[in-house]
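RNA polymerase sigma-70 factor (ECF subfamily) (Thermomonospora umbrina), 292 aa
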Amino acid sequence: MFEDSSELDCFEAERPRLRALAYRMLGSAAEADDAVQEAWLRYDRTDLAPVRNQAAWLTKVVTRVCLNLLRARQTRREESLESFTSDWLGAADDDRVPQEEAELADSIGLALLVVLDRLSPAERVAFVLHDMFDVGFGDIAHMMERNPAAVRQLASRARAKVRGGAGTKTADASRRHQAVEAYLTATRTGDFEALLTLLDPQVELRADPEVTGAAGPLTLQGALVVAKSALAAGLRARHTVPALVDGGPALVMAPLGRLSLVILFTFTGSTITAIDITAAPSRLRAFDITLD
């Protein structure tokens, strides 16, 4: 244990930065707190006399703890995704998403958290450290026990996934993006008339059983019925963001940055003719999702 308060003061001064770093790597406030607490325990037990830069040492410890947590999460993703989806959908209806988690997610951007969650653990760590915290590739390589060239490649690959690549949108594609964004806005604000202007009179909505919890898929038809259904999901819409899914405009619901639901749209021109909603883990994992 510490004999004076100088090292404790040093750790407390670094705590906000370490927590921010861990949250961006993990996407969970609880796990970020656990990672920082583990760093504290190691800090408390270590002879720091040979350590020239305690801030860098703590960054290294938190990074390695987060990397291990991400790798462990990856091995149990299917089980945790199914459990998380059903649990959170119930929480969303009761407006019980933890306030602190929601504020942290909003500070970063839900869409970015969604994409970060699609990266491999090594890609996520390299991207967060370099692009968000301006840590040099040499230092990251030391933390991750890789060579700088490999870390640079990891960050570059992650950056490409986050940005979704470049491309020129046609006017029709642009109108479809605008329609999806208008659909989300109308759902959030309860604008029934605006929804009707976006939907084809014979629009069909299809939702898989994981969305509704029913024994089979749900199908709704007609603009009036589909618009009413969209408004009934107003609470969930607050945690939904636009994205590109398999290259097309879509909406993704990602409480705390963990993908739980995807809404796909079919168009005739810029009019929505079909909506497909899925929460099936096997389908969610297969989607190519990038920031819109």
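The domain at 171-291 is CATH 3.10.450.50 (Nuclear Transport Factor 2; Chain: A,). The chain has a mean pLDDT of 81. ok done for today
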